[in-house]
Amino acid sequence: MKTIITYGTFDLFHIGHIRLFKRLSKLGDKLIVGVSTDEFNAMKNKAAYFSYQERREIVESCKYVDMVIPEQDWQQKRGDIIRLNADIFAIGDDWLGKFDDLSDICQVMYLRRTQAISTTEIKASLATFNPAQALSA
């Protein structure tokens, strides 16, 4: 059995997240997703719209995901890979090279992100969204 593991905040769940999970699930038999906790996001100076529990529930409901674990700090990945017998660690190519040190215990893959969509861009768009303008267009 081949196990895949990935990590992320997965806030404002969107088509890019679904496509990532779908691609990852095709690489093996089991997909494990580490969802960043609110405390870890705070350490990264990052705020999620949805709480960890809500994001966990959303990710767990995706048919491509077999297991969700909390991501609590940067250092836990190595221990998780060993403990969960992960064969492949995969993450978006915006992290290219950042996790190469894990290649001594598993295959490390950097996947191309879905074009024209990101949670950061969605948040920025919503911040400037004017419903009145949208209705008159």
Automatic annotation (TrEMBL):
InterPro entries given in the database record: Archaeal_FAD_synthase (IPR050385), Cyt_trans-like (IPR004821), Rossmann-like_a/b/a_fold (IPR014729)
Residues covered by the Cytidyltransferase-like domain: 5-123
Keyword Membrane: no
Domain of life per record: Bacteria
GO MF, one example: nucleotidyltransferase activity
Record keywords, A-Z: Nucleotidyltransferase, Transferase
Keyword Nucleotidyltransferase in record: yes
NCBIfam families assigned to the protein according to its UniProt record, in alphabetical order: cyt_tran_rel
Classification via PANTHER family: FAD SYNTHASE
Protein's recorded name: Glycerol-3-phosphate cytidylyltransferase
Source organism (scientific name): Shewanella maritima
